[in-house]
Amino acid sequence: MKAVVYKKKSYPDKLVLCDIEKPVPNDSEVLIKVFAVSLNAADYRSMKMRIIPKRKIFGADIAGQIESVGKNISSFRTGDEVMGDLASYGFGGLAEYVTAPERAVIFKPKQISFEEAAAIPMAAVTALQALRDKANIQKGQRVLIVGCAGGVGTFAIQLAKYFKAEVSGVCSSKNVQQTLSLGADYVFDYTREDFTESNKRYNIILGINGNYPLLAYKKNLTSNGIYVMVGGSISQIFKSLLFGWLLSFGSKKMKSLAAKANKTDLEFLAKLLEKGIIKPVIDQCYPLDKTADAMNYLKQGHSAGKVVINIEPK
Ligand SMILES: NC(=O)c1ccc[n+]([C@@H]2O[C@H](COP(=O)([O-])OP(=O)(O)OC[C@H]3O[C@@H](n4cnc5c(N)ncnc54)[C@H](OP(=O)(O)O)[C@@H]3O)[C@@H](O)[C@H]2O)c1
Predict the structure, then answer these.
(1) CB distance 144 to ligand 1 below 6 Å
(2) What atom of ligand 1 comes closest to residue 230's alpha carbon?
(3) Is the minimum distance from the CB of 121 to ligand 1 under 6 angstroms?
(4) What is the 312 CA–ligand 1 centroid distance (Å)?
C-alpha cells in the first residue's frame, strides 16, 4: 500500500511517500481503508519532539471504510463507514490502510463526506472538552475564543453557540467573515484591535492560539471567570502549566486542558453534525503525495479551519 512514512534523514521534508506492507489486524482490531485524514498540531509537534509512531506513520484523524474485522469484533462489519482519532493508538492514518481497535472509531454520519468526517475528531473533541468539561459552560455566559479561526477554534465557536453562550472570537482580518458566519456575536480583528485593552469581561476565555500573557487573560475574566489554556506556542503552554495554579488564587480560575480521544464525545458530536448544528470548516485538501506541503502549511499557524489529505479510492 501507499503510505507517507517519516524518514529522519530525508531532506528537506521528512515525510516520504513509500510502498509498504499493508497492516494486518489482530483479533480485536478492524482494518480500515482510509479515504481522508486531517492533520493536527499533534502530528508536527510529535515530529519536532522526535516522538515517532511505531510504524513511523503520522495522521490521527481518519475517515474510511472497514475492509475487514478481527474475530473478536462485534460492532463493525466490512463496508461500514467509520471515523476516529488514532492518536492514542499509534497514529498511522497517512496510509491507504490502517488498523484500529473498535473503541477508537464510530460510524460516520451518512450525510457528511469522508473529508468532513476526517476533519472532526481531535479538533472537535478538544473544543467540546474545553468548553463543557473544563469551563462548565452555561447558557447566557460570555465566552471569548482566542484563536477562533483554526481547527479547534471553528468548532469552539459553534459549540459555544450550541450551549447558548454569547460568543466573541479573536482572529486576523481574513477570518473575520468566517467567524461571524459560524455564529460568533462579536469578532476582534487582532490586526486592528487588542482585546486585552477592551473593558469587556468574560465568564470563559479559551486560549487556543496567540501570544497573550496569562495576566492579560486573567484581567479580562469576570470575578469568577475561567480561563482554559488549550494551545499556543510551546513557551505559552509551559508558562500556563507552571504558573496557572499560582494565578488561580482567588475566584478566577486558570486551567489547562489535556484533551483525550473519547468515543462517547465523538458520538455526541456526530449527532450534532447529523442535525446540522455544527459543521467542519475545511481550509484546504491535499493529495497524499503532497502531505509534506500540507504539514508545512499547517505549521505556519494560519489555516482557516482544517487541513485534510485525500486518499483516492482505487
Ligand atoms: N490541549 C489539548 O488537549 C489540545 C488538543 C488539540 C490541539 N491543541 C492545541 O491547540 C492549538 C490550536 O490547534 P488548531 O488545530 O486549532 O491549530 P490551527 O488550525 O493551526 O490554528 C490556526 C489558527 O490560529 C490562529 N492564530 C494564529 N495566531 C493568532 C493570534 N495571534 N491570535 C489569534 N489567533 C491566531 C490563526 O488565525 P489567523 O490566521 O486569523 O491568525 C489560525 O486560523 C495548537 O497549539 C494545538 O497544539 C491542544
Answers:
(1) no
(2) 1
(3) no
(4) 28
Task: Quote the number of domains for the chain.
Answer: 2
- The response to whether residue 125 sits with its C-beta less than 6 Å from ligand 1 reads no
Please check whether residues 139 and 94 belong to one and the same domain.
Answer: no
Cα–ligand 1 centroid distance for 237 (angstroms): 12
Ligand 1 center–CA 224 separation, angstroms: 26
| Cβ contact 30:69 at 8 Å | yes
pLDDT tens digits along 272-296: 999 999 999 999 999 999 999 999 9
DSSP 206: E
What CATH number is associated with residue 103?
A: 3.90.180.10
68-85 average pLDDT score:
97
Tell me if the pTM is above 0.90: yes
271 is a domain residue: no
For atom 22 of ligand 1, the residue with the nearest CA is 150
Residue 41 Cα, ligand 1 centroid: separation in angstroms?
Answer: 8
Over residues 207-211, mean pLDDT:
91
Q: Are residues 149 and 240 in the same domain?
A: yes
Residue 307: closest CA among 174, 169, 154: 154
Same domain, 20 and 113: yes
Same domain, 7 and 101: yes
Cα distance between residue 74 and residue 57, in whole Å: 27
Atom in ligand 1 nearest the alpha carbon of residue 126: 5
241 confidence band (pLDDT: 50, 70, 90): confident
Q: What per-residue confidence (pLDDT) applies to 267?
A: 98
Contact status, residue 128 vs residue 159, Cβ threshold 8 Å = yes
152 CA distance to ligand 1 middle (Å): 7
Q: With a 6 A CB cut-off, is 87 part of the ligand 1 pocket?
A: no
DSSP code of residue 185: S
Contact 195, 144 (CB under 8 A): yes
Whether residue 314 has pLDDT greater than 60: no
128 phi, psi to nearest 5 deg: -65, -50
Domain holding 289, by residue range, is 2-120+280-310
- Tell me the pLDDT band of 313, cut-offs 50, 70 and 90: low
